[in-house]
Predict the 3D structure of the following.
Amino acid sequence: MMLFYNLDPAFSDAADHPVLKNPLLASVFLKNSWKKQPENIRNLIARLESVSPGEDLEHQLLTALFRTFDLKPAMKWVMLQYAAMPDISQEPAFVARLLHLKSVQAPVYSNAYNIFKGKYRHDDDPVVHFDQILDWLSGHGWLVVDENGEHYLHRAFVRVLREQCKPEFDYFLEMTKSLELKFFLDENDWEEDDPEEDNFHLKRLSEEAYEKHLSALFHLIQEDDAENYLNLLNKYADLLHVRLDWEKEMMLREKAVSILERTEGTESDRFLLALGNLAMLFYRAGKYQKALVHFERVLEISKQVL
């Protein structure tokens, strides 16, 4: 890295800056700054130095870099897709299939991308092929590519994307359509002569993959997109119910009840149904006192409505 400073004196001003002491920040800074004029680099360093040190210094600096280098809409949209996936390396062909692209070489042109570009940016953004976007993002430090050519997004970017791009359900239309159990394991792929326990094991792996994807997408979507957020939350809770993970399901059902109470009021049919289902879930899990409290509330509200 010192050799790089010797080649371009403009970077010597940043030698002791926290950006270059953090591998992720240094990668983004150096890979995106090398074409800039020295004066622009000095201005960027001065802007970064204006960030007040604190517990979230890495996040603040990463946000400053993200805003400064101002990626094209297509680049940001692809980063959002990776932010909505589990924290593991993904094969480009797998991601292309998840996004309903015909191949890795296909252009990024979809309903979800058009919605994102229309809401987030209004300037023209030429259609770029998916593999070209991956090469650009990994070459500039926004995506990580491993020795197998698989990509993943550093989790530190997820918070930045959530704050700066304000993800909405509509930005992931193709992905959410693909997030069905059969996408990860179609029953047609099972061999008839396979032992039943092998099929069960494969189905279990399929459910785990589905849960990981739902969880990643669920934690990225903005909660103020209430209807779609509830839809995703209920899908996740339904899967947990099938897997008998009642403790985790209770947390999601309680959150759904809270959102419905806030958005529709206590007299709505959907709120009463969700509250009743939550009471039944507590009862099945042996939490009888909580079940009683919720059943009594359903009864009290129902009397008022009638």
DSSP finds 16 helices and two strands in the chain.
